[in-house]
Amino acid sequence: MKLRTYIKPLIIVAFLTTGLTMQSQTQGKEATDMMFRISEIEIFPEHLDAYTAILKEEAAASVRLEPGVISIFPLYQKEDLNVFRILEIYASKEAYQAHLQTPHFKHYKESTLNMVKSLKLVDMNVLDDSVIELIFKKQKI
Question: Which of 17, 50, 79, 126 could disulfide-pair with 67, CB 3.0 to 4.6 Å?
Fold first, then answer.
């Protein structure tokens, strides 16, 4: 399926479930308290199929069931199918902490522990808060 097929529903879910309202940026303060992370994951090749199935299930459940999860968007490298990046966006740090306590995340974490060769969690900051609002407007939600 084309990537575009997934983007609009992802944005719609984010808009409807979080009720995000964008505020203008004030000096020294971000316009949003959202949390952004990129998870960099390498899987042992022999576990690729099982890991992929578990990750798909966890990502779908997180976005569908958790109002504070805006994105759990898994991607894999074209050149190396065992290397994943997950774009994670949460409405707040509290939403992230709540996500860690859900049954579907705990299942993912426990089930894939021996499948993961390496894991790096990279917390990110938004360069331009106004772009977030533009994404929502562009999707004509």
Answer: 17
The answer for 140, left when phi > 0, alpha when psi is -120 to 50, beta otherwise, is left
Q: How many residues does the chain have?
A: 141
Measuring CA to CA, how many Å separate 95 from each of 9, 46, 116, 124?
Answer: 20, 33, 25, 16
Beta bridge partners of 26: 29
* Both tokens assigned to 68: 């504070």
Q: What digits encode the pLDDT tens for the residues 101-124?
A: 999 999 999 999 999 999 999 999
Report domain extents, the chain.
35-126
3-state SS, residue 106: helix
**pTM recorded for the entire structure:** 0.76
